[in-house]
Specification:
By secondary structure, this protein is mainly alpha-helical. It has one domain: Fumarate Reductase Cytochrome B subunit (Up-down Bundle). It is 67% helix and 0% strand. Helix 2 packs across helix 5. The protein is globular. The protein binds protoporphyrin IX containing FE (HEM). The site of protoporphyrin IX containing FE has 25 residues, from helix 1, helix 2, helix 5 and helix 6. Protoporphyrin IX containing FE binds next to helix 1, helix 2, helix 5 and helix 6.
Length: 196
């Protein structure tokens, strides 16, 4: 969705840009809801830690340590939160943005032209910050794979992690799929409501 949003803006396909932005917004709302109602390792309470714990974890990693985590490690958890916040800010500023020609976001008329122009500038700036975060994320995944011998991508897609990378005695609780479907429908309805 991020690539489609960038390419559509770059090529001036702003209707595509709007729909990819709204789809991303719905997925973000779903992920935020899943951070409270989802399986153990999907919950914010499982992977968001205070800064001292994140710093201590990074120190252990730099010293060659390989602490085990069933879900996101403390540094990965922080990156998840930062990426979610940046993407949400990108989608929300887009809703108020305008291209100075014929296209404007569905909420642009709710604010003054100056405010919409200001949010459009921020929309462009946040995208550059997003690019840096995405690169950082890719470099970190490469580091874990090549240096730590830990594949972070597979478990993110399959939800399955090699036994050797999970601490002993971890109890995982899974959320029924019907909750996920209801949350997805609710998130899509919220994004669609903005448009209509
Ligand atoms: C519903 C959501 C969104 C709406 C209504 C929206 C609207 C807009 C508008 C009106 C512009 C034109 C600004 C200009 O001409 O300077 C724009 C530019 C752009 N948008 Fe969005 N956008 C949305 C979501 C997103 C998302 C999610 C991303 C990426 C993750 C994104 C990336 C971009 C980029 C890269 C540009 C070009 C910025 C520049 O050239 O400075 N947009 N968007």
């Amino acid at each position: 969705m991020i690539f489609v949003s960038w390419l559509s803006a770059d090529q001036g396909y702003m209707t595509v840009h709007l729909w990819s932005g709204l789809t991303l917004l719905a997925l973000l709302l779903f992920r935020i809801g899943w951070g409270f109602a989802g399986a153990t390792t999907a919950r914010f309470s499982n992977f968001l830690h205070a800064p001292p714990k994140v710093i201590a974890y990074l120190r252990t990693i730099v010293r060659g340590g390989k602490p085990l985590h069933a879900g996101h490690n403390p540094a990965g958890g922080l990156m998840v939160a930062v990426l979610l916040a940046a993407l949400l800010a990108q989608a929300v500023t887009g809703l108020f943005a305008n291209d100075g020609l014929k296209f404007s976001g569905p909420l642009a008329l709710q604010v003054s032209v100056d405010r919409s122009d200001w949010l459009t500038q921020i929309h462009g700036t946040i995208f550059n910050i997003l690019l840096v975060l995405i690169w950082l994320h890719l470099v970190a995944i490469g580091f874990y794979f090549l240096v730590k011998g830990e594949n972070l991508v597979g478990p993110m897609v399959t939800g399955k992690k090699h036994r050797a990378h999970v601490p002993e005695g971890v109890a995982l609780v899974f959320t029924p799929p019907v909750i996920a479907i209801a949350l997805l429908v609710l998130s899509a309805a919220c994004a669609a409501w903005i448009l209509f």
